[in-house]
Design brief:
With about 400 residues, the chain is of the alpha/beta class. About 45% of the residues lie in helices and about 15% in strands. The chain has 18 helices and 10 strands. It comes from Dentiscutata erythropus. Keywords: DNA-binding, Isomerase.
């Protein structure tokens, strides 16, 4: 039929949401066979449209589609002034997190809200706890492991405005165009920048603005890395996670091996420069800057101590000290902060020069120390490797850092 139409009046192929060809190939393997269309109609033009397609993704599309020529026309304008971005420190424990989510929800008096979780189990847990508070008539749960019929019912209820809140994984969103979504809540930081841009863009499509909240905890980096490497929830069982598992994933970049760090450093440097120069006046950082004056602090002394502590820990590792076979972020922070916890005691961290240096001067807190460690890794003063330990019960993550 298509060949007949082409012979009579010509054809043009337009593929919208083109990034889905790569991102959702696990759901729709047939999408990766679009090269058949091109080979069947070699002279017919094809137009691929997407709002979130990095150059890396474009190159992957080129490999999948194998066109003779691919002209890329792109815009860097992804800023939407009607969206407010907020980062909230993530409370410990699911009950406290749910209470924090409820506080956000209750502050939004109209419109609908999507709550995104990284894993299916978290999506279900969040949904069930919200049902206890708001009732089942107000909450929908959506993820890829649901039966197709159940997903269709939930989606219809959402489109018909029968439910106000949706607890979902990133399986929810493609083709969803609801104008009155007032907020997007992420229970942890997204697995990739592409996903984040797609998901927050679902708020405020009626032009009346929207809030985007991320509950952030550095501990989630540990958990999400385990998910990626098949730890707490295997990649095979969690299809939403596996679709993000490639070198373009922001989380994968965070734990990239040393030989990729130079490329990563340049990318992050560009992002940092953009953040430092650009003022959107609509995120919590800009609002905070405008409300209070920035306090600049010289932390060179703290940084020097962290590097000295790492150096001493490495010497213990290389000497095959049975108490310390690898160095983790916890080891560095416990030593720096002067922790008296189980980890510090079992590894005799109090014998390290610099143990408790922060508690003596009350200079910085634990979260500040973690931030400085991240900065040192980014500056390649400390290198980082990921080491997944397998056991019958679970897999664990440890970091080996060195100068």
């Amino acid at each position: 039929m298509l060949k007949k139409i082409n012979s009579l009046r010509g054809l043009q192929f337009v593929i919208d949401e083109a990034h889905c060809i790569k991102e959702y190939e696990y759901f729709r393997n047939s999408w990766t066979k679009l090269n058949v269309v091109k080979s069947g109609f070699p002279s017919v033009p094809m137009l691929f449209l997407t709002a979130t397609c990095t150059l890396d993704t474009a190159e992957k599309l080129r490999a999948i589609i194998t066109p003779s020529e691919l002209q890329i026309i792109r815009s860097n304008k992804i800023y939407r002034p009607d969206l407010k971005l907020e980062i909230i420190s993530k409370p410990c424990g699911k009950e406290k997190l749910i209470q924090a989510i409820i506080s956000v929800i209750d502050s939004i008096t109209n419109g609908r809200i999507i709550i995104y979780s990284a894993s299916i189990s978290d999506c279900i847990t969040v949904g069930q706890l919200l049902i206890k508070h708001y009732g089942s008539q107000n909450i929908g749960i959506y993820h890829s492991s649901m039966k197709s019929a159940d997903r269709d019912i939930t989606l219809k209820l959402w489109k018909d405005s029968e439910i106000r809140f949706m607890s979902a994984t990133n399986a929810f969103g493609m083709g969803i165009n609801i104008s009155d979504v007032r907020a997007i809540i992420h229970t942890t930081f997204p697995m990739s920048l592409d996903s984040f841009i797609q998901e927050i863009g679902r708020a405020g499509r009626d032009g009346n603005g929207g809030r985007n909240i991320i509950f952030f905890s550095r501990a989630d980096l540990h958990t999400l890395t385990l998910i990626l490497y098949g730890g707490h929830e295997s990649i095979q069982e969690n299809i939403e996670i596996s679709q993000e598992f490639d070198e373009s994933s922001s989380l994968t970049e965070m734990v990239a091996p040393t030989n990729q760090k130079k490329h990563l450093k340049e990318k992050r440097k560009q992002l940092l420069e953009m953040i430092l120069i650009f003022r959107c006046h609509n995120c919590d950082n800009c609002c905070r800057r405008e409300a209070i004056s920035t306090e600049w602090r010289n932390v060179s002394n703290e940084v020097n101590w962290i590097v000295r502590i790492v150096d001493q820990l490495i010497k213990r590792v290389t000497s095959q000290d049975p108490k310390l076979l690898q160095i983790s972020r916890d080891d560095i922070t416990d030593c720096f902060m002067g922790s008296k916890g189980k980890n510090a005691v079992s590894k005799d961290l109090s014998s390290i020069e610099g143990y408790g240096v922060s508690s003596e001067s009350c200079s910085i807190f634990n979260e500040d120390c973690l931030y400085l460690i991240d900065s040192l890794i980014l500056a390649e003063i400390i290198t980082e490797e990921v080491d997944i330990k397998y056991s019958k019960e679970a897999k664990s993550l440890s970091y080996l850092s060195s100068l």
